[in-house]
Amino acid sequence: MPTVLETESTLTDRYQTTVPEAVRRTLKLGKRDKLHYTIRANGEVVLTRATGAEGDDPALGAFLGFLAADITRHPERLQAIDASLVARVQSLTEGVEVDLDAPLSADDE
Fold first, then answer.
1. In contact, 36 and 48? CB cutoff 8 Å
2. Is residue 1 over pLDDT 60?
């Protein structure tokens, strides 16, 4: 008989949750991976790793693939971000506060 794993997570005020480590490991999930939900008539929800790329921008995907291949072929071309650019980005975002736990407005739901 197969082993059954059970785990829980909690919803935030924004209806977000962290996928438990056991689930991430079992589904071999990484950052930015997509999840697929199947909701059965009896209320049971099955969570699987999404296989399709529905909604993904094909041009962006091709560009990111191009970048990954180029980095693999020519790692010597990689350069550190210039300190002045870091300082510029920090100056543009200084004082901007984001509360990730704040409820979304009706327009964001």
1. yes
2. no
Look at residues 28, 26, 9 and name the one whose alpha carbon lies nearest to residue 17.
9
- Which residue type is seen at 49? R
DSSP states of 36-53 as a string? EEEE-TTS-EEEEE--S-
pTM of the full predicted structure? 0.44
Q: What contacts 27, CB < 8 A, 6 or more positions away?
A: 47, 48, 49
Structural contact between residues 49 and 28, judged by C-beta atoms closer than 8 angstroms: yes
Beta-strand ranges (E) seen in 1-109 are: 35-39, 45-49
Q: Is the pLDDT of residue 53 over 60?
A: no
55: left (phi over 0), alpha (psi -120 to 50) or beta: left
Residue 88 has pLDDT above 90, yes or no: yes
